[in-house]
Design goal:
The structure is a homodimer of 249-residue chains. The first copy, chain A, has 249 residues and is α/β, with parallel strands linked by helices. The first copy, chain A, contains nine helices and twelve strands. In chain A, the strands form three sheets. Chain A has a six-stranded mixed sheet with strand order 2-1-3-8-7-6, with helices on both faces. Chain A has a four-stranded antiparallel sheet with strand order 10-11-9-12, covered by helices on one side. Chain A has a two-stranded antiparallel ribbon with strand order 4-5. In chain A, a hairpin with an 8-residue loop joins strand 6 (128-130) and strand 7. Chain A is elongated, with a radius of gyration of 22 Å. Chain A starts with 6 loop residues before the first strand and ends with a strand. In chain A, 47% of the residues are buried. At the A-B interface, helix 1, helix 2, strand 2, helix 6 and helix 8 of A face helix 1, helix 2, strand 2, helix 6 and helix 8 of B. Strand 2 (40-47) of chain A pairs antiparallel with strand 2 of chain B, so a sheet runs across the interface.
Chain lengths: 249, 249
């Protein structure tokens, strides 16, 4: 049986991530959430707040993946240009969403401040809203592209609302086990296991902590039977190498 | 005077980052280090351990940017395929580096373990070594592509050694100031400042902490005079909006 595979690309928009000033945490959160819905993040791109770059990246991503999730650049200031870029990528004009505008107007402000805030009510024509449970302006969806805020708490709130709109595929589950072993000590056995279980993705992730080298073996796949089979073999491999397998979680 | 701009792309290779299991921290470190050497990270891509994807991404990146830095996939196990992918991207065979092999052989191991470990001595023909001050196998450079480990401590050690090999451009410096203000309250003034200082990149980064919304304004550019000019204007803008500018650091 072949897996039903549904893919996604995450596009992280923002100079502050590329300069190293801000540590991105959105990718890991989006990947974990989408995985629960049966969607696999196959690529992520971090790009600057530059119009041409954003347009090209979004058009490339929406052609190559089932879904695209963008973060960043939808606030009220001059460097927030994601909305116009998405509109340009789709070749549609921007329109004002009455629903977002209403929400923005609920919080009173001087006229010039309100005017800036209302920039956030613009969406590409044909887009539908992505709710924002924090009470701020909504994000939006156009075709297979979801456009969300960059602030992690706001992005997470928005993402939490779109599960029902998304058609996921088979859900990838994982098992993992850790041992204080160098990767080389078990590399041959792991390669052999991987060959016999092509439906399971067996990854080996070395680490260095408390002045010891160790390896975490992660198995990912859609079949619980295959995952259990691989896990047992990996544990036996670790024991045969003279170490104790430590189950994660 | 036009800036001498030298660009880089960071290519992060690894399923564990895309699944959300591992939080990447390499991008922020590389970006900060390269910035000190006058190199601007213009894009980052996170891609899976898949041969065709890696080859295409590396060839795309090395054509579009002055330098490319990859992390991940150079260990001894079956899922470490970065070296063969880089060789394929450049259309050259893999060769064994005697220098890496010697270093690997210094640590004794049973024959089969040593055989696996020696996988890490393979480099693309024509590559030169990137030293690894942790004592482990070296990384390598081929043309404008630097290939480094994925473990942050090892990657950082490798990266620290390549500064002398890199020709940087004008160094981007930054100033930043924070205020408990909504972005909308100062958006118009910021846009005006940005228009008058086209050589400075003025970014506005909203946040939410201690139950208050605030904004950090970050100025980035190569001219200290321009940066100071923008900083003073931004501070005046914050004061005019009734708040106190808080200098960062």
């Amino acid at each position: 049986m072949t897996d039903r595979i549904v893919t996604a690309c995450v596009v992280i928009i923002g100079n502050e991530i590329l300069s190293g000033r801000t540590q991105d945490t959105n990718l890991a959160h989006i990947a974990q959430q989408l995985n629960e819905w049966g969607i696999r993040v196959q690529e992520a791109r971090v790009i600057p707040d530059e119009e041409d770059v954003i347009v090209v990246a979004v058009n490339d991503a929406r052609a190559r993946f089932d879904y695209v999730f963008t973060t960043g650049g939808i606030g009220p200031t001059h460097d927030d240009i994601t909305v116009e870029c998405i509109a340009r990528a789709f070749g549609v004009p921007m329109v004002v969403s009455d629903e977002i505008a209403q929400r923005i107007r609920r919080r009173p402000a001087p006229r010039d401040v309100m005017e800036n805030r209302l920039r956030m009510a613009r969406i590409p024509e044909g887009a539908t809203l992505v709710d924002n449970p924090t009470g701020g302006p909504q994000g939006f969806r156009i075709d297979n592209v979801f456009v969300m805020a960059g602030i992690p708490s706001v992005m997470q709130a928005m993402l939490s609302t779109v599960g029902g709109e998304i058609e996921g595929g088979d859900i990838v589950r994982s098992r993992s086990v850790t041992a204080y072993l160098g990767e080389s000590q078990i590399a041959a056995a792991l390669a052999d296991i991987q060959t016999r279980y092509p439906n399971v993705d067996l990854g080996s992730y070395p680490f260095y902590r408390s002045e010891r080298y160790g390896t975490t073996l992660v198995m990912r796949g859609t079949s619980d039977t295959d995952l259990s089979g691989v896990l047992e073999e990996v544990k036996s491999t670790i024991i045969a190498a003279g170490e104790q397998p430590m189950m994660d979680e």
